[in-house]
């Protein structure tokens, strides 16, 4: 499902998509400018505090803006951060459970606040109070971005925190010992009856562990720190809402309208963003079954921009030489809620044609009813590449699988439930 | 001898009533079975993972706090599974089964599955013996058809991940196989059968457990979890296997707060579940996957050797393991379970214990509530006193890991809300955090 066409080695390996292509940098810049205008950057730069803005609709949910304070706190340059996911600041000692809380909040368009252990560029860990909030579009009510504020919890329990012995596992591995500051053994254990037994264990590296005991302990924020998070949030939102007026794409802090029926949830968009292949989702409950999601690879394949395809029925891909009997087959399958695979002649925006190995499958939501159809496209000529990986047909089916899991799981929450 | 009657789950299309003979004649049968008649010709994808993998750091870290890109193993499982689905090998379309999150603090997940137990008669299961010898005459996974197999899963010998789309099945090489469960309880429901041709009984050993952890780590998807049921804890097939499926929501057990009890010298943190109806231990982290696997399998081996039924959930991409001793089947056999609970016919195996309730009656589905789920699971749990005893056994068994045990007065290590945590059943009398060489 990764690297759709370029895998050449005999063994296939997942690629950690950290490389940021120039096209995605454009998308990132555009994501910010088209909503707030570029002047908003200057205004945000004048705000104190550490914060980032992310776009969940871009694959990988990247950071699209990072404040000066944030860069200073983490030790990164702006271009090392923009385009990457927030996970780059996490490491060994970051609580999985807290991350799960954040993940679920983001998936459900909610805000959330947790104490989180993060790592600077130099590998040193620090505790911070992390607050993430959705930014809603005023019309449609969809989440356009997320804002995250990070208030470092410095100053308290420093002694303990300084003794964290382990840097995150990324980057160069050397020098992890640099941050191991001595820690008095007595301080760790002053129960005399046990001290004798301790000695031997100390000599083979248990020091390390005694320190970790403290490092993964959540750090409580004070009321002051909690307040400063809210103040920072207020300031950021006032800049964002103000500048969004200039572009006409108004945003707000509370969801101002019920999301349109046809709109996908943030959680679904994030899940679909993982998929690197060409596919679209169409909604059979809307008139003429329009496209409600199109992947980047689909746009690359067909040459259209996203807003040129959303809302349209896929038939615009057909053309003068497209076979009617194939279209008939597709129609019949859809009518019967059955999957189908066809080879169909399609046309790009520039009217060049290609053979499309198209697989279409119904996708059910948590109620068990068909909620969408997914159509996965493979350009026939590309078919023979990647012999050592999954066959194109299998990769096509794995897209169907990912979509089915996402749609089903993410619609389970229909009943109101706090999670 | 304690027995219960239950409807066995049909995991393979070759599983007959009473778990009897395979439906195929043996010998040159031409039906793509796994016996010598057909296995020579067989080709099956092979996924070989890198064995020496550090569990720490970026390598295995969840890429994103959102969702990572789809990993290769993830797409292999999904692609092969969807293909079997389109070939009609499953007994029903699980995505057509209604499912919902039950309102409440924990978000128990309910599914209405009326098809899973149709057309089967209740069978007797012995529940008072966690270890039973493999029985060639009963249904086992060597009797499934090749079409139910998805791929071979093994460690790579050259230290790199490898994938062979069409590998022969080398019986002498003890391949581990991944097969579909034809009665899925969620999308992607598969069975991992370690060294299938060795016909191992349902019993955890180090190597097999490590294999299961590797599968979770390689899939790299926090919503793909593996589970294990021992005999006496609702395993129905006495042939070593783990189960796994996709459900893109947190399980209630993953949300429950925990209290740290100890940490091993290799960095495995051991905690106790708090505020959860089933008492259990959580094992997390470790310098390598092996470290986590070793300590958990020692704990499992201790339980099975002491004839204590248990369930295991592998979560968070193989970084977190829940170990839950249970006594429901025993209570059921002794007639100590409420008739109302029995009526629901819910068998509290690993998924149910984790908070994913598969319900067979529409009525139960519609009336599903957190209180009901809690009531059922509370019956599954060991009593506090018994849990303490069992924990003592476990800690004795894993003593060689040089545990650093946290004593009760040390600062709370309670995730989420503070709770009326019971003191750690530490083997330590200290008033401070202490290192204990066991
Ligand atoms: C999910 C989905 C994806 C589709 N993808 C394509 C495609 O890539 N190329 C194409 O020519 N038609 C595609 N179609 C088919 C057209 O949308 C349409 O169904 C077809 O032209 C026949 O219907 P019509 O007679 O209404 O045009 C897709 C349909 C669905 C439901
Ligand atoms: Zn045969």
Oligomer: heterodimer
Give the percentage of residues in beta strands of chain A. 15-25%
Structural class of chain B: alpha+beta
Q: Of all protein chain pairs, which has the greatest interface, and how many residues does each chain bring to it?
A: A-B, 97 and 88 residues
The overall average pLDDT of chain B, rounded, is 85
* Biggest beta sheet summary of chain A: 6 strands, antiparallel
Kindly, what is the distance between the CA atoms of the first and last residues of chain A, rounded to a whole number of angstroms? 30 Å
CATH class of the largest domain in chain A: Alpha Beta
Q: What is the spatial order of strands in the main beta sheet of chain B?
A: 7-2-6-8-9-11-10-15-16-14-13-12-18-19
Structural class of chain A: alpha+beta
Helix content estimate of chain A: 25-40%
Query: Judging from the principal axes of the Cα atoms, what is the shape of chain A?
Result: elongated
SSE run of chain A: HHEEHHHEEEHHHHEHEEHHHEEEH
Instruction: Report Rg of chain A.
Output: 25 Å
* Structural domain count of chain B: 1
* Through-space gap between termini of chain B: 37 Å
Which stretches of chain B are poorly predicted, pLDDT < 50 over at least 5 residues?
18-22, 55-66, 409-438
The averaged pLDDT of chain A comes out at 78
DSSP helical segment count of chain A: 14
Find the CATH topology of the largest domain in chain A.
Beta-Lactamase
Keywords (chain A): Chromophore, Flavoprotein, FMN, Photoreceptor protein, Receptor, Sensory transduction
GO cellular component, one term (chain A): nucleus
Domain PAC (chain A): 110-165, 338-392
Region (Disordered) (chain A): 1-22
């Amino acid at each position: 499902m990764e690297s759709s066409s370029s895998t050449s080695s005999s063994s296939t390996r997942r690629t950690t998509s950290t490389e940021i292509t120039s096209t995605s940098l454009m998308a990132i810049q555009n994501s910010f400018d088209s909503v707030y205008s570029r002047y908003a950057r200057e205004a945000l730069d004048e705000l104190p505090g550490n914060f980032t803005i992310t776009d969940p609709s871009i694959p990988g949910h990247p950071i699209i803006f990072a404040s000066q304070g944030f860069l200073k706190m983490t030790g990164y340059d702006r271009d090392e951060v923009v385009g990457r996911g927030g996970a780059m600041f996490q490491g060994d000692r970051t609580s999985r459970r807290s991350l799960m809380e954040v993940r679920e909040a983001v998936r459900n368009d909610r805000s959330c606040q947790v104490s989180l252990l993060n790592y600077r560029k130099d590998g040193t860990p620090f505790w911070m109070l992390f607050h993430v909030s959705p930014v809603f579009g005023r019309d449609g009510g969809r989440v356009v971005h997320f804002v995250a504020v990070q208030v470092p919890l410095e100053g308290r329990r420093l002694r303990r925190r300084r003794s964290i012995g382990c840097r995150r596992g990324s980057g160069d591995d050397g020098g992890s010992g640099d941050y191991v500051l001595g820690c008095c053994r007595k301080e760790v254990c002053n129960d005399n009856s046990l001290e004798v037994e301790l000695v031997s264990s100390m000599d083979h590296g248990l020091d390390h562990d005694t320190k970790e005991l403290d490092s993964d302990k959540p750090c409580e924020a004070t009321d002051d720190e909690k307040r400063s998070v809210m103040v920072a949030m207020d300031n950021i939102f006032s800049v964002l809402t103000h500048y969004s007026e200039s572009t006409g794409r108004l945003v707000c802090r509370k969801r101002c309208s019920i999301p349109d029926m046809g709109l996908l949830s943030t959680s679904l968009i994030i899940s679909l963003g993982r998929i690197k292949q060409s596919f679209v989702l169409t909604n059979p409950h809307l008139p003429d079954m329009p496209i409600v999601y199109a992947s980047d690879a689909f746009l690359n394949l067909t040459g259209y921009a996203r807003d040129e395809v959303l809302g349209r029925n896929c038939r615009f891909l057909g053309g003068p030489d497209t076979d009617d009997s194939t279209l008939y087959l597709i129609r019949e399958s859809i009518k019967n809620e059955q999957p189908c695979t066809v080879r169909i002649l399609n046309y790009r925006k520039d009217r060049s044609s290609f053979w499309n190995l198209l697989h279409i499958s119904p996708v059910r939501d948590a109620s068990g009813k068909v909620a969408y159809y997914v159509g996965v496209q493979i350009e026939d000529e590309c078919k023979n590449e990647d012999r050592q990986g999954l066959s194109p047909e299998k990769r096509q089916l794995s897209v169907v699988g990912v979509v089915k899991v996402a749609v089903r799981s993410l619609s389970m929450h229909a009943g109101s439930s706090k999670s | 001898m304690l027995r219960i009657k239950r409807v066995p789950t049909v995991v393979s299309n070759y599983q007959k009533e009473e778990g009897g003979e395979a439906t195929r004649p043996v010998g040159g049968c031409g039906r793509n079975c796994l016996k010598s008649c057909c296995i020579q010709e067989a080709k099956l994808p092979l996924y070989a993972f890198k064995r020496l993998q550090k569990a720490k750091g970026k390598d295995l870290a969840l890429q994103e706090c959102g969702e990572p890109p789809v990993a290769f193993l993830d797409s292999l499982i999904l692609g092969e599974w969807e293909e079997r689905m389109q070939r009609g090998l499953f007994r029903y379309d699980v995505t057509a089964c209604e499912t919902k999150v039950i309102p409440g603090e924990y978000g128990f997940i309910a599914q209405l599955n009326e098809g899973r137990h149709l057309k089967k008669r209740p069978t007797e299961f012995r529940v008072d013996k966690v270890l039973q010898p493999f029985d060639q005459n009963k249904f086992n996974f060597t009797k499934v058809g090749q079409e139910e197999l998805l791929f071979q899963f093994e460690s790579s010998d050259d230290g790199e991940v490898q994938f062979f789309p069409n590998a022969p099945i080398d019986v002498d090489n003890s391949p581990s196989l991944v097969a579909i469960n034809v009665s899925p309880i969620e999308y992607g429901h598969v069975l991992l059968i370690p060294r299938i041709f060795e016909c191992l009984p349902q019993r955890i050993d180090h190597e097999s457990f490590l294999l299961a952890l590797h599968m979770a780590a390689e899939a790299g998807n926090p919503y793909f979890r593996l589970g294990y049921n021992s005999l006496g804890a609702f395993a129905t097939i006495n042939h070593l296997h783990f189960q796994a499926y996709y459900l893109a929501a947190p399980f209630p057990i993953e949300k429950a707060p925990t209290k740290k009890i100890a940490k091993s010298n290799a960095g495995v943190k051991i905690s106790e579940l708090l505020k959860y109806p089933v008492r259990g231990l959580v094992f997390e982290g470790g310098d390598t996957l092996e470290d986590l696997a070793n300590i958990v399998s020692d704990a499992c081996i201790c339980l099975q050797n002491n004839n204590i039924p248990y369930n295991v959930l592998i979560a968070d991409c193989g970084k977190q393991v829940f170990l839950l001793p249970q006594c429901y089947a025993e209570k059921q056999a002794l007639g100590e379970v409420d008739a109302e609970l029995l009526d629901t016919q819910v068998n509290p195996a690993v998924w149910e214990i984790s908070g994913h309730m598969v319900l067979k009656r529409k009525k139960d589905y519609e009336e599903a509530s957190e209180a009901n789920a809690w009531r059922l699971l509370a019956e599954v749990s060991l009593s506090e006193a018994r849990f303490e005893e069992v924990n003592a056994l476990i800690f004795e068994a894993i003593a060689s890991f040089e545990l650093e045990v946290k004593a009760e007065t040390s600062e709370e290590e309670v995730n989420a809300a503070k709770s009326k945590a019971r003191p750690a059943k530490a083997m330590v009398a200290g008033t401070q955090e202490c290192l204990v060489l066991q």
